[in-house]
Each structure stands twice: as C-alpha cells, then as structure tokens.
Automatic annotation (TrEMBL), chains A, B, C, D:
<feature type="binding site">
    <location>
        <position position="114"/>
    </location>
    <ligand>
        <name>S-adenosyl-L-methionine</name>
    </ligand>
</feature>
<dbReference type="Pfam" id="PF08704">
    <property type="entry name" value="GCD14"/>
</dbReference>
<feature type="binding site">
    <location>
        <position position="157"/>
    </location>
    <ligand>
        <name>S-adenosyl-L-methionine</name>
    </ligand>
</feature>
<feature type="domain" description="tRNA (adenine(58)-N(1))-methyltransferase catalytic subunit TRM61 C-terminal">
    <location>
        <begin position="47"/>
        <end position="217"/>
    </location>
</feature>
<dbReference type="GO" id="GO:0031515">
    <property type="term" value="C:tRNA (m1A) methyltransferase complex"/>
</dbReference>
<keyword id="KW-0808">Transferase</keyword>
<feature type="binding site">
    <location>
        <position position="141"/>
    </location>
    <ligand>
        <name>S-adenosyl-L-methionine</name>
    </ligand>
</feature>
<dbReference type="InterPro" id="IPR029063">
    <property type="entry name" value="SAM-dependent_MTases_sf"/>
</dbReference>
<keyword id="KW-0819">tRNA processing</keyword>
<protein>
    <submittedName>
        <fullName>tRNA(1-methyladenosine) methyltransferase</fullName>
    </submittedName>
</protein>
<dbReference type="GO" id="GO:0030488">
    <property type="term" value="P:tRNA methylation"/>
</dbReference>
<dbReference type="InterPro" id="IPR049470">
    <property type="entry name" value="TRM61_C"/>
</dbReference>
<keyword id="KW-0489">Methyltransferase</keyword>
<dbReference type="InterPro" id="IPR014816">
    <property type="entry name" value="tRNA_MeTrfase_Gcd14"/>
</dbReference>
<keyword id="KW-0949">S-adenosyl-L-methionine</keyword>
<dbReference type="GO" id="GO:0160107">
    <property type="term" value="F:tRNA (adenine(58)-N1)-methyltransferase activity"/>
</dbReference>
Amino acid sequence: MDERGKKYLLKEDREFQTDLGIIKKEQMERATIGDTIITHLDKEFKVIKPTVNDFIDLMERRCSILIQKDIGTVLARTGLGAGDRVIDAGTGAGAIALNFGNVVGDKGQVYTYEIREDFAEIAKRNIDNFGIKNIEVKNQDIKEGIDEEEIDLVFLDLPKPFEIFEDVKKALRLGGWLAVYAPYIDQAEVAYRIAKKLDFRDLTILETLEREMEIRPQGTRPKTRMVGHSGYLVFCS
Amino acid sequence: MDERGKKYLLKEDREFQTDLGIIKKEQMERATIGDTIITHLDKEFKVIKPTVNDFIDLMERRCSILIQKDIGTVLARTGLGAGDRVIDAGTGAGAIALNFGNVVGDKGQVYTYEIREDFAEIAKRNIDNFGIKNIEVKNQDIKEGIDEEEIDLVFLDLPKPFEIFEDVKKALRLGGWLAVYAPYIDQAEVAYRIAKKLDFRDLTILETLEREMEIRPQGTRPKTRMVGHSGYLVFCS
Amino acid sequence: MDERGKKYLLKEDREFQTDLGIIKKEQMERATIGDTIITHLDKEFKVIKPTVNDFIDLMERRCSILIQKDIGTVLARTGLGAGDRVIDAGTGAGAIALNFGNVVGDKGQVYTYEIREDFAEIAKRNIDNFGIKNIEVKNQDIKEGIDEEEIDLVFLDLPKPFEIFEDVKKALRLGGWLAVYAPYIDQAEVAYRIAKKLDFRDLTILETLEREMEIRPQGTRPKTRMVGHSGYLVFCS
Amino acid sequence: MDERGKKYLLKEDREFQTDLGIIKKEQMERATIGDTIITHLDKEFKVIKPTVNDFIDLMERRCSILIQKDIGTVLARTGLGAGDRVIDAGTGAGAIALNFGNVVGDKGQVYTYEIREDFAEIAKRNIDNFGIKNIEVKNQDIKEGIDEEEIDLVFLDLPKPFEIFEDVKKALRLGGWLAVYAPYIDQAEVAYRIAKKLDFRDLTILETLEREMEIRPQGTRPKTRMVGHSGYLVFCS
C-alpha cells in the first residue's frame, strides 16, 4: 500500500516499478508484513496482509466474477465457517473459491470444478499467488460425477445447475446446503422445482439489492446509479 | 432433526420429550453426529452437525439480533476469513460473535464487549452451548478502552459508535476494517464524517434490500411482504 | 372531515352518527363544500371536496384494488390527460376506472368492462356516489369484443390479458397505449412476447418499489415493513 | 412518426428534412392528425396526436426534469384530476407544468412560478408548442408571495421549499395537497418537521424505485443497471 492508500499486488522475485519510484528485487525478497519499504524516490510503501477482497481486486481475471453482495448472502445464509468442506463449480478465475477458501481455513477444504482448461490454469495461478493451500482446482466436468462426500456447501454457477442435483444430494452431509447462482428467473424456477422433486428442504430464492449512500456537503442521498440485478440465489438443504 | 426436517437443540444430560416420542437420557449421552436415534414411539431422529444459523435460531435470546443479510454484507465486504481477529460490541445474546467465531475458527479470535451483565451471561451460555472456544465475552464498557491490537475487523452495534473511533483506529491492523451498524441515517452520517476526519479510508455506507421470490402453481413473483429496512452499514479501513 | 382530520363519506339523505355527535338529516341536505357543520355535541365537521383517493378509501369494495403506486406508473408512463378515452377491464369495484375518470374529465370517457354482474353493480354504485358522469360500466366479457375505437389507453387487469391483444390493437388510436397489470412474471412474459408478435412498439415491463421514510426523535430511516411486490406492468403502444 | 416508429416534433411553418426524405412546407401546413404524409423518397410518415410524454421527450430543455416515476407518484397520491387547480415552482423547462396541465385540462389551471427569466421563456415556448392553454408561466419569485387561492395541489421543486410553507397553507383548499420534491434526505426531513409544526396532516415521505425487466432468449431478469435514486417526495395536506 502506498502513501495514498492505493494497494498493489507484489511478486517477490522481481523489481517493482511505480510512479512513486522503484523497489529493488532484494527489498522485495526481504519484506514481511508490517515492514515499511522506501523507494529510490524516497516514498514509503507499507507491506500489508491483503484481505481476500484486496487480492481478488488485483488478481488476473478473464471472466466475470460473482459480486460481493451475492457472496455475502451465500456466506450468511449457509452459515459457512472455518473447517467446512465446500464444492464450487464452475471455478472461473477462482474468485469464489478464494472466498470460500478464506473462510474455511486450514482445517476446511474447497474442491472447485472447472471444465475449461484455460480457466483452471488461471485459477490455479491465482490461488497459488494468494498463498492458500486448501483449494483443489479440478479441471473436470462436474456433470460426470462428484468425487467428494460429506460436504457442507455445494455452490453452483453453471448454465443448467439442476442437471446434477441428484449427485449434489449424495455429496452433501445431512443438513448441508446447496446454493445456486442463477442470473435468469427461469433458471431459478427450474432449480427450485427440481430441488423440490428431489426432497431438498428449506427452499428459498433470494435476490439482493445493494444501495450506496452518498454524503455530500448539500446533504445525504442514495447514489444515482445502482446495480439493478446481478442474479438470483436458490438455497436448499 | 426429526422426520419432518424440524431441528431441535438438545442438551446431552437430560431426557428429551417431543410430540414424536421420548428420547432417554442414556440415548442422548451416547449420540454422536450421524447417528439415528429411535424414540419410544418408534420415530427416527438424526443427530446432525448444526450450522451457526441452526444454532442461533434455537438459542436463548433476549434482544434483537442483526439480520442475516447484514451479517452477509459485513463478511463479504471485509473479506473476513479463518485465522482473523475480530472485536465486536455490544455482544447482546452473542449472535454476531457466534457468526464471527464460526468464520475465524480455531486460529482466529473474537473479543466481544458487552456493558450489561445479564446479556454477557446469556452470551457466554450460548457460546458454551455452541461449543466454540475462540470467543471471549468481555463484560466491560468498550468506551473505557480497547485492550487488543492488530485486529482485522472491529464491528460496532452501539448507539454512538463514533465516540470510540480513535481507539478503534489504534486497535486495527493496517488494512483492517471497521464496520458499523446504524439503524438511522443520522448515525451513519456522523460515523462517516468522524471516520473521514480521523483519516479512515475506503468509506462506504451501504444498505441491503433482500427480496424473496415465490414459486406458485400460477406463476412466480416476489413475496408481497418484505423487510423494508434493517439498518445502514458504514465501512472504512 | 372531523376536527382530528378523519374523513367520512356522507350520504345526504340520512342522519349521520359519529363518536363526536350526531349530524341531522336536514343539516346533511343543506351542506355544501366549504361549510362547517356542528354536531349535537358541539363538535365541528368541515364539508370538503374529496379527492378520488379519499373516495376510494371509503367506498364499498369487495375485491382487492390496484395499489396507488401502480396507478401512478400507468398515469405517468402513458401521459394520460384530460379529454382522453380509456378502456379498462376488469372493473372490480371500480377504483381504477374512478382514477381514470378523474383524470380524463368531462371531455374524456372511460369504458370499463366487467364480466361479473355483482362487481359491475358495486362499481356502478361507487361511480354514482362519487358523482362522475364519464364512466360507462359495461357488464360484458371483453373477450367477446371491444366496441370502441380511437382509444388513448387500454388498461387490462385480467388473468390472460394477451388473449385480446389483437382486438386491443384495433381499438387503440395510433400512438395509444396498452398497459397490463400482471402479478406474476410469467403473465408479463407472455404478454410481452405476444405484444411483440403483434408489432406493438415501445415494449417495457416495469415494477415499482415504494419506500416510506420515518422521521423519529432518534433519527430518520426507511420503514421496517414495506410492500415487496404488487405486480408487474407491461406497456406497449 | 416514421415507418420505424421514431417520433418527431414538427413545426408547421417549415420544410422538414429527415434521412427518410423531405416533407414540404405545404404538406406540413395541410397535415392533420391521422394523415399519412409521403416524403420525396416515398417514405410514409403518420401524423399522430402526441402524448404529453412524446412532447416532453422532444421539446427544448436546458435543465434536468423530474423523472416520470416521481410524477406518477405525485399524480397517484394526490388524486389530481381534470378541473383541478395547481401551483408549481420552479418551472424549469416546463415539463412538470405540462404534466399537470395535461391532467387538469380546460377546466383546470396551472400556475407555474419561475424566478429565472431564461427558463420562464423556454417554458412558455414549450407550452405554446404543445398547444395547451391552461398553464400560466409566472416569471416571479414564489418566495415573495403566492397570488392564488383554493388550490388543489402545490408542487415544489425548490432548494428550500419549507421557507414558503405558511404561504402554501393559505393557498391550498381544505383537503388540498402539498407535494415537495427533495433530492436529499436532509431537505425532506426539514420539510417534514416544518410541515408538522404548521399543522399539515397526512405527512408522508416516499421514495420510489423502478425496475425494468428484460426478456431475452435465455430468460427473464431485471436490467443490470437501474436508477438508484432520483429524490424523496414529501406529501402533506
């Protein structure tokens, strides 16, 4: 983080150049969290512990990522916690897997399925860079089967998630949650009906609207522009 | 969980009576997660691992608790994860501390400040019952000082949270988050202005609206009734 | 209107009794707008000109009525004005016809179709009582044909509105609007697709959420409870 | 309206050029509503009766105009109808006055106050062009007094509307409405408190969110972008 509060993602093994000056390779290698580094222009950088969001903002992405408010709804509604075991498909650039990995910690585990090899590669790189060990990227089609059992949460962001609900049911522990992200109401409806047929319980379809308030000298008001929709979330257990 | 999916919170050390029959004290003591227990009326109960939400729904409460959607916004926006250290005030019945404790896990720690002794007692009981070891209930006024340092997240649900922002700033690690719950816009405004004066960064005031969709034979629609407002959340780091 | 601001709907031809005293039949007959009437308990009542909303709030109803916010959306989006000609089906208790009649005035005309005789009777009584002359209640099934032409607005609150879109198209003037109220998204979708097939233009599906703010001594906030959904409105011209 | 449904605002007294060909001055002068005009490129134009919205979309504007959803809320909540008498300040380009004029019709009257001469001129031109006779543009400061009495609706879009609430109270008929547009919550609060002090009744602060649904081949969903806020509306009578 520089003196202005701007954050950077640094690779240890090379020189780092910014408009506030150069940080040498040797400085990078020695730096640990809490250190202050001085550039050749005499500007200060602090080495901070990044949150998972800091990292996701700066990491390599080639596909859209689930927005924060929807991740929040999944975390809060399923009560995901440290030590839990999660399945996630498809991986994309790995953002949601990183969110889950961040929560479940060392004693938990995330298995993330991605059918496309290029995305799986990006995701692996991102996860390595974040330095988390509890996420296994599986470059395989989740429709061909789920290898894991006794899972606390299965999260699906797939075009036809309902095709694998029977497998999901077998993979979940008793009381575990299935959460489905569906941009279209039609997908959410089909997911709901099939989950019901398969005797899932606690079926809920949610949508979240987030408003940001602006504090200006003239007064306070919600922002003029807002995200009108990101997707529906279908939950069942 | 009974055959209908209804969940119960069981105390190991006594007989348990339901409309589906009695479970004896000996049965209760021997039961572990995954077991099936048969009542004297020949009904099946499954022993399941409760999520933090299952527990909070059934635990003892004497005050209102933060609603799930707001907890989700806090978790998602601050990127809280396993191993993090959190301060929370006021504790109330302990629900929000349990949510944080559930996420930060064994390697993390939650310090929860509660000025009222009766609430602190309820919270301690609830935390013991849930069986989590990483939450310290502190029956003291957070306005008299914060004992901890290098904290990842401070969450305040107090009438005048801004009175302690200077102390919060000292307690937070570089890059750590302050999150404030404020039911009234006026509180959120003051919190925002004071945080700005104290050079907090990334100031944001958010409000979340959650809609539930109904699937009926006639068609699909949002539910007629919804929660119109729970509170504003002020974030800064 | 009594001294507390409470409004009453008075029938001229009989004595009126309230908790603030009795108003005699003779007083009722003589009263005109602007008058002050004194009850036998010496309380004041003012005779006021009711708005269409005052009237609808107090009139006889046996069915649910479209909520105000949706009427507002129809009025604003179609630009309905004095002198316009409107078709409305089904009538119900006549509330929406009264709203339209109130706007189109003496030079305009509302034709309201209602298949059920009992509703048509209630609607006629309500319209007579409000004292408006520009609404014709037609106790006939609009599916059997629309008698009118050169209509500025057709408003449909029917289970399958799309069955009569071809007839509606013939009834509308060039540039006139069709507005459909649909509680379920499925109805709105079908209406949209059929309108598109029939070459209607300016197709839009809207939904409105209304929030009320509370001013309390402690501060300002949106109300805790709000209407989560009343219906979708499909517009085309 | 051309063959594609695009609408144009035509001046009778001159030749009209489009990418679909030229319409001669003589053709323009002869045209009446319902006519079809052929351009020199043999394209058809229909002469249609514009709604007030068609007109406002195409008229001259130099300032922002109140958005449709808010006009709808004012119309619906106050029950404005043909024959009513309205005061509106400030006029701006005249859009809201046109909306009111359109509803109150020949037997009603709109008095619109505008302090700036340039806006008052634009508004007069727009109103003349729309061809409505019931709007009087008053190029005077409404703070210096209200000339009218027995008004059904006063609508204020001013920075400090509350400064003239006493005058408004005198101008309103018993049971008439004051509606205030306030972009900031702070203005709405002050308006509310002062209205209360002045014994206005039925005080309400509303805010409306409008969502548009998208029908795509893949499915149905709310649009990604929406207007997050336009303003609060304060009502009292």
